[in-house]
Amino acid sequence: MARLNLTGDRLANQQLARPRFGCPVEVVAWLGAVQAQDYAGAKWAVGQRLAASTDAEVEQAFAEGAILRTHVMRPTWHFVSPADIRWMLALTAPRVNALCAYYYRKFDLDAPFFAHSQKAIVKALEGGRQLTRAELSSVLQRAGLVKRDETGVNLRMSHIMLRAELDGVVCSGGRRGKQFTYALLEERAPRAKTRSRDEALAELATRYFTSHGPATLQDFVWWSGLTAKDARAGLEMVKSKLISEVVGERTYWMPASVSHARSGGRRAYLLPNFDEYVVGYADRRAIFDPVDGLGNILSNHTIVLDGQIAGTWKRSVASVGVTIEMKLFAPINALHARRIARAGERYGAFLGIEAKVSSGLG
After folding, report:
1. Residues with Cβ within 8 Å of residue 9, at least 6 apart in sequence
2. Where are the beta strands (DSSP E) in the chain?
3. CA gap 173, 232 in Å, rounded
4. Helix, strand or coil for residue 257?
5. CA distance 191 to 91
6. For residues 19 and 50, what is the distance between their CA atoms, to the nearest angstrom?
7. Distance between CA atoms of 33 and 73, rounded to whole angstroms?
8. 106: Cβ–Cβ under 8 A, 6 or more apart, which residues?
9. Are 163 and 154 contacting, i.e. CB atoms less than 8 angstroms apart?
């Protein structure tokens, strides 16, 4: 038990400390999936897990389809690799559809409707075309499946496209300016691997505990969105490849060869909202005390010092540079201030502009 260091081992296994990968798809595949509803934040989440990268490089990987963005777990958008998208969707989509069943009923979206709408979507996108949601809404309007002036048309379209993603019909295309597009999954990932259900359970468990460990079964249930029964089955299949430590009433699972790059805990990190270091666990008490009144920590960009959340940050980007405004929860010493300044420099380098850090106490 003395060997277990939750924050140090997680920083290492998540590739925040001493990252060893060279391109975005390697990071995404290692983590299994990267939560990505905040697109700019998700790019930075990938970028700072690379030894050296820029926003433009991650954007290019997305535009080329080296990494894809789709609804795959919980439900929300995630980055996934093209090689993993098919088997992961087959495993997790039934759970996401069950969570969305109320909204499907609310908007009169049943199996015949999805069949008709997806046929129209395929016809509109085939041949490598990439269209925005608004453009696909017009396609469905012309097909008589969506009315332009109906109440809740935007929410209805959101769930139509969500289901098309979950059914493996569409995924992300490249961006058109700042607008997101959809493309056919079959054209974006034509050789995507499929797995049996047991193989998929075992693979997802392996990816999670290897990249996110030390973590508990309950953490895996939260992250994957699977039932406790399925998550336990996946862990049972692979636990011979893992090691475990019992602390109190919790059993933590992690890769047998922990990298122990705990010096990474002495760095400061400017994490984006929904970063896997925060969102990847059901129990986050190892990195912050929820009774301290920090609010919804998931939706905030967070400052990590010594493995702990020490504050939040916001950015203001201009052509000449980025200003990073910090809100610290407690005073920091000069050493920590220098580490945060270096973290700001890393973020500025990622964006390709100069970074200026301004600090303050909340």
Report:
1. 213, 214, 254, 258, 259, 260, 262
2. 34-35, 68-73, 76-80, 170-172, 182-184, 242-247, 250-255, 268-271, 301-305, 308-318, 321-328, 354-358
3. 35
4. coil
5. 18
6. 5
7. 9
8. none
9. no
**Integer Cα distance of 237 and 330 in angstroms:** 44
pLDDT in tens, the chain (362 residues): 346 889 999 999 999 998 999 999 999 999 999 999 999 999 999 999 998 899 999 999 999 999 999 999 989 999 999 999 999 999 999 999 999 999 999 999 999 999 999 999 999 999 999 999 999 999 999 999 998 777 667 889 999 999 999 999 999 999 999 999 999 999 999 989 899 999 999 999 999 999 999 999 999 999 999 999 999 999 999 999 999 999 989 999 999 876 554 445 679 999 999 999 999 999 999 998 765 544 578 889 999 999 999 999 999 988 889 999 999 999 999 999 999 999 999 999 999 999 999 866 55
Vertex 14: Cα angle to 97 and 82 (nearest 5): 50
Distances (CA, A) of 191 to 55, 87, 162, 197: 27, 12, 22, 18
Three-state SS at 190: coil
Q: For residue 152, what are its two tokens?
A: 């809740």
Determine the Cα–Cα distance for residues 95 and 72; give it in Å rounded to an integer. Answer: 10
Q: What is the CA radius of gyration of the chain?
A: 21
The C-alpha atoms of residue 137 and residue 274 are separated, in whole angstroms, by 29
Residue 355: strand pairing partners: 322
3-state helix, strand, coil in the chain (%, to 5): 45, 20, 35
**Residues 6 or more apart in contact with residue 99 via CB below 8 angstroms:** 74, 75, 225
Domain 85-188, second-level architecture: Orthogonal Bundle (1.10)
Nearest 5°: the CA angle 261, 349, 324 is: 95
SS3 15: coil
What stretch(es) of the chain map to CATH 1.10.10? 85-188
